[in-house]
Amino acid sequence: MNRFPTAGHLASWAGMAPGNNESAGKRRSGKTRKGSPWLRTLLVEAAYAAGRTKNTYLGAQYRRLAGRKGKKRAAIAVGHSILVIAYHLLRTRQPYEDLGVDYWEQRTRQAQERRLFRQAQALGFTVARQDDKPAA
Fold first, then answer.
1. Is the pLDDT at 133 greater than 70, yes or no?
2. What does the pLDDT look like over 53-78, one tens digit per residue?
3. Measured between alpha carbons, how far is residue 38 from residues 94, 111, 129 in Å?
4. Domain residues of the chain, as ranges?
5. Can you list the positions of beta strands (E) in the chain?
6. Which of 128, 64, 127 lies closest to 101 in space, CA to CA?
7. Rounded to whole angstroms, how far apart are CA atoms 58 and 126?
8. Are 108 and 102 in contact (CB under 8 A)?
9. Distance, CA of 56 to CA of 97 (rounded, Å)
10. How do residues 92-116 score in pLDDT, each as one tens digit?
11. How far apart are CA 54 and CA 135, in angstroms?
12. b/e map 51-79, b = 16+ CB within 10 Å
């Protein structure tokens, strides 16, 4: 794994990193480059399999993206995630821990809470957080 300094370098080498071609507010094709065809096929197949799983982070990611971007783009994104996960597992020699199906929902909820809190303060309101569970 010393050949690749970061997971992004590995993803780029494998052809699993989408490009970002934007200029003057116009978005052009973000097509992935040709990498290892065998590795790419393997990762996309694994992504489709992960998309059929329930109660996993990768399955939730696939379903969340497939609804917006389509099944093929979602498979590429999940394949990219699988490759990044594999890189970190090999690099750190730690076991895999799934983030869970509700990872993005919790993350966006926390971000929304912080954003609304700052907006209320900017408008001059005094805000006190009330937890979902009442203190006993």
1. no
2. 988 999 999 998 898 888 988 998 99
3. 26, 39, 52
4. 7-102
5. 22-23, 26-27
6. 64
7. 40
8. no
9. 10
10. 888 888 887 887 777 788 888 888 8
11. 34
12. beeeebbbbbbbeebbeeeeeeebbbbbb
